[in-house]
Design brief:
With 532 residues, the chain is mainly alpha-helical. The protein is 44% helix and 11% strand. Strand 11 and strand 12 form a beta hairpin. Helix 2 packs across helix 5, helix 3 packs across helix 4 and helix 7 packs antiparallel against helix 8. The protein starts with a strand and ends in a 5-residue tail after the last helix.
């Protein structure tokens, strides 16, 4: 059997031949006229998709080890000569254990790792075969499929799992270009909808897993891990970011270093300070400034009214995390620091732009559009929608609003600051927002080299009515051709920025070393020479 791979993870012209004794894979290397647009597109496609057969290989690995597991079970079911079943298993050395031991010995893997592999193989081949076939056909990579397995891990009812398998596979096939965040969000929403008990068990297991752990990293660093409720962790990260935003521009640390120092300072009750070492430091890290920034921290949860009232168990969406179960959403709504605001989509029937500023959406439109897409609409970017810009796909014409793109759900899509800048200032990037006949939102992005990716709005299941609300504006008018200027520049080239960073760190190290030397010298002066 020869199959030509046409899935989203394949290179054009790729093929695979699967026979009884071999798997033969052909992946054409990129070609095209040197320096041409076609060659650039071929190089990018090859670099991104040449491993598109990894899912196929993983599926056949699962199929092989699952067949071995079945053979091991069948051996136990054979009837011995005296009519008694051959008891070859114990509680310890069950079929999965024995199969995993064979696999571990051949693969050089640990027993625990091998047992996980055998369990995943059984779930892929026997329990969720449609999702498994998406990996086999290149729709899901092995990395994405690991996320799928994690989401369905606690579904133990065979019939419910079969329904989840079918529905999740259908949604993933219809979702367009995928990332792991999108895959996990889609499957998590299906699990929470079809088996709320599994989601509740997941939360119960998470509560039991709450812990604080310390893991050594190297001779100088240790890792401090806090496992807590998803909402609390999201708020904590926002608070840490609010704290570090007060340092001045000359602080030599990276953002992650500042986050680490701020978190430890917060836990220990010690001050978090800027480390620029300059007399003219403009840091705003006093208690009042930090408190003012922390007061602006908001965590958004989008939930339907019937779910909040208990009439439905449709999942909710936690910004920056993903779908959460209905009971979890109701618990969050009852917190003392929660503010519940109604979102009436009927308000959008009269228009989605502010009356006094047609470039800005109304509060209802803003919340609905961010909730619909969930994150930056650039494929592969998981920046939360509430931390992104709402970009006019067809540019808004400030001089004549009727001559450009309208402020409407059909023309607004969240983009993080970086990808918004790429689309606006780098020539050749084109995006398009499509609302199909069923009211489903799609985003298409085409690179300067002609590579197009298409993805479905991640949370279409949460707000299916939004795409059915009629627009109040006329047809979208394409603005005149934009003359791209120089666009924004980095303050320094990448190389110079790296050198400046190294210089700042070296200067900080030098100051610390000189201070330590001065301390040692003062100590020696106070105590005299050592007696040896």
């Amino acid at each position: 059997m020869t199959t030509t791979m046409t899935g989203p993870a394949s290179v054009a012209g790729s093929s695979v031949e699967v026979t009884d004794d071999a798997i033969i894979i052909r992946v054409p290397r990129p070609e095209g006229e040197a320096g041409s647009r076609d060659e650039r597109a071929a190089l990018a496609a090859f670099a991104a998709r040449a491993d598109g057969f990894a899912g196929l290989i993983r599926w056949y690995q699962f199929e092989a080890v699952n067949r071995l597991r079945r053979m091991t079970v069948a051996a136990a079911d054979e009837v011995s000569a005296d009519g008694q079943a051959a008891d070859v298993f114990t509680r310890v050395y069950d079929p999965i254990c024995q199969t995993a031991t064979l696999y571990a010995q051949a693969a050089g893997a640990r027993q625990h790792t091998a047992e996980r592999f055998v369990e995943n193989a059984e779930r892929c081949i026997d329990e969720a075969p449609m999702l498994g076939k998406l990996m086999r056909d290149g729709v899901l990579t092995p990395y994405f499929f690991d996320g799928v397995l994690a989401q369905v891990a606690l579904v133990d009812d065979v019939d419910v799992l079969a329904a989840i398998d079918a529905e999740a596979a259908l949604r993933l096939q219809e979702a367009g270009k995928l990332s792991r965040a999108i895959v996990e969000s889609i499957v998590a929403a299906v699990v929470a909808e079809f088996d709320p008990d599994a989601a509740r068990r997941t939360r119960a297991a998470a509560r039991a897993s709450k812990r604080v752990a310390v893991n050594p990293v190297n001779e100088e660093l240790s890792e401090f891990v806090v496992t807590a409720d998803a909402a609390d962790v999201a708020v904590s990260k926002k608070v840490v970011d609010a704290i570090i935003n007060g340092v001045c521009s000359n602080d030599p640390r990276t953002k992650n270093e500042r986050r680490s120092d701020a978190a430890i300072a917060r836990i220990n009750g010690t001050p978090f300070v800027c480390e620029c070492g300059r007399d003219d430091c403009a840091a705003e890290l006093d208690d009042d400034s930090v408190a003012a920034r922390c007061k602006r921290v908001v965590l958004h949860v989008v939930v339907r009214g019937e779910t909040l009232s208990g009439q439905s168990d449709l999942p909710a969406y936690l910004d920056g995390f993903g779908p959460i179960s209905a009971p979890h959403a109701r618990e969050l709504a009852q917190r003392s620091d929660a503010v519940v605001r109604d979102l009436d989509l009927g308000d959008l029937l009269g228009g989605m732009a502010q009356a006094g500023n047609p470039c800005r959406p109304t509060a209802t439109a803003d919340a609905a559009i961010r909730a619909l897409h969930g994150q930056c609409t650039w494929v592969g970017c998981d920046r939360p929608a509430y931390e992104s810009d709402l970009d006019h796909v067809v540019e808004f014409d400030h001089s004549d609003p009727r001559a450009g793109g309208p402020t409407c759900a059909c023309n607004l899509a969240p983009k993080c600051e970086f990808h918004h800048g790429v689309k606006t200032h780098v020539p050749g990037w084109v995006d398009e927002l499509i609302v199909d006949a069923n009211g489903v939102f799609w985003v298409e992005i085409t690179s300067p080299d002609g590579i197009t990716t298409r993805s479905r709005a991640m949370n279409s299941w949460l707000l299916p009515e939004l795409g059915l609300i009629p627009c109040t504006h006329g047809p979208i008018v394409e603005p005149p051709t934009i003359e791209f200027g120089a666009g924004p520049n980095r303050p320094y080239s990448r190389t110079r920025a790296k050198h400046r960073y190294r210089m700042r760190v070296r200067a900080a190290n030098r100051r610390a070393r000189e201070a330590e030397q001065a301390r040692v010298a003062a100590s020696a002066h106070d105590w005299g020479e050592p007696p040896f």
